[in-house]
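We store amino acids, tokens; thus:
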Amino acid sequence: MKKIYLQKVEQHETICYIGKIDPRDLVRVATKVEMSAVQDAQRPLNEKRVKDIAKYVGIERGILPNTLTLATKDTTFDVITEPGSHLLYINFPESDAEFENFKEKIDVMDGQHRLYSFLEDICLLPQDVPFEIGFTLYIRPDLFARRRIFVSCNEKQEKVSGNLLMWFRAQLNMLSDEEKNFYNVVQKLSEEYPLKGHVKMNAEKITNGVNAKEIMAAMKQAKIQDLEINEQPLIDEQKVDLIKKYLVAWEKFADFKFAQSKPREAGAAIKMAGLKFMILLLPKIWERALSSQSKFTEEFVINILNQVATNVGVEREAFFTSDVTKMNFRDRTAVDAFANQCNNIITNLVAQGFNPLA
């Protein structure tokens, strides 16, 4: 057995202990939990999240700064005062035989996804790589106390914006492969007209602004990364120029400005629902330019949008504000359905009807 030393913490007559340990050892004494199973004082365990953390720690050399919150189930891990001192510790197993006697003696009240990412059949961290994690230990709390502790750990926390977290990952060169497909494009768009002053790249306050992360999600859904010329994918600079020209065409078509329009005048056009809709139509309009061998100009785009508006039955200036169309921007499902409808209209346009250079 080895000693794990602890610090005593007292809060309103509730006592807990803080220590550190190798999570590959700690998980061996934790209660076994089935993936997705309902628990008495915890959320269900998400296998994908567990494996993502295992990859983050083992492959990406990620760190886990937050402590785990643990509970003892019986007297096995009661805290001991070292004779002749004020030092506190618990006895912890070292050998396989000792671990066998300590199985399932610890419950995880918070941080279970982090801890179970170190299970032997999931962990990707080499055994010879030193790794410790902090923990807070409560001694034999009853079910009511465990539930209260779980709520305290989670209810009062303000969730950090995914947009801000992505910005930090960009500064640390930790963007995922998927994020790398779009981040530079969106960043450049945020610095130039027409989206300059309209895109939130981190946590800045912009009235009616849209989050970079949501723009990237729309680009992924539209498969902007697949746009190509003569079977050659567009490079980032070409995508930026194309999207700028395309969005300026929308401004002229519907008579609004992304970064300057008043909400009531522009309707959904300056909201994420409107921008997502525009992005979803871009590949189909690009496809029309290729198939009709037309230059992708503002006039070309406006010509197509005029025909879409005619088919939908709405005046171009009221495209995002008319009673005919505004319900199409009320939620994600409605936006997707309206984009599909308009893409079908574009697909069915007669090629000889286009004369954007006239």
Observations:
- The CA atoms of residues 178 and 244 lie 22 Å apart.
